[in-house]
Amino acid sequence: MQTNIFFTADHHFGHANIIKFSERPFESMEEMNEELIKRWNEKIAKDDMVYHLGDVSLGKPDFTKEILERLNGKIHLIKGNHEYSALRVPERFEWIKDYHELYIEDEEATAGKRKIILFHYAMRTWNASHHGVWQLYGHSHGTLSDDENALSIDVGVDCHNFYPISYEEVKEIMKKKKWTQPFAPRN
């Protein structure tokens, strides 16, 4: 069975006010929590890799543990600014980091590996951005306009119909960008 790779952020499980703040289409926190779990598990299988770019839950640690136990996948956590409870359930994560440089085998990428910078916050520039390295982020809940000239995107649930986004989906979005290498050799 193939292991798939997914990215997501900003679930804010247990946070009733996020419905209003981010204009989420849910009638209650309970409805939001259940729908986010359902959509996560529709896409992600037990052995899939998930990179969650922060703000998992604002609920209490026991509540957060119960939610995390219901989610499929091997979850890697990039810390957001709302991780009090998630950090109290470290055993549910493969690892927990502030920042990560991920390498994915991809025959379409330079030297067969795609490098992706994972961070909770959007950056205007990042390690090797001038060489075409991607940056994935959350935090902004879709409020930052996408820069078609930058190889970065918001992978938060508010931007993707409340679903995690697969590596293949990210790749398709990046192919539509108008990025050009700033220091390309001249002919």
UniProtKB/TrEMBL annotation:
What positions does the domain Calcineurin-like phosphoesterase occupy?
A: 33-148
Its domain of life reads Bacteria
Q: Belongs to which family?
A: Belongs to the metallophosphoesterase superfamily. YfcE family.
This chain belongs to the protein called Metallophosphoesterase family protein
